[in-house]
Design brief:
2 strands; elongated; isopeptide bond; alpha+beta; Ubiquitin-like_domsf; Rad60/SUMO-like domain-containing protein; two-stranded antiparallel sheet; single chain
Length: 59
């Protein structure tokens, strides 16, 4: 067996790399927009806290 046959390929399978981001655009009822750039590993609680801080409201 050669080395190429022994190792399973992970290319094209859909694995996410560490440090990839999601870009979000939140549009409020008054048409104000907030843009957020979030890592794939960020907890939702931290995202909500950041949004509330920018809006000036409590969580």
């Amino acid at each position: 067996m050669s080395d190429q046959e022994a190792k399973p390929s992970t290319e094209g399978v859909g694995y996410k790399k560490e440090g990839e981001y999601i870009k979000l655009k939140v549009t409020g009822q008054d048409t104000s927009e907030i843009h957020l750039k979030v890592k794939m590993t960020t907890h939702l609680k931290k995202l909500k806290e950041s949004y509330c801080q920018r809006q000036g409201v409590s969580l």
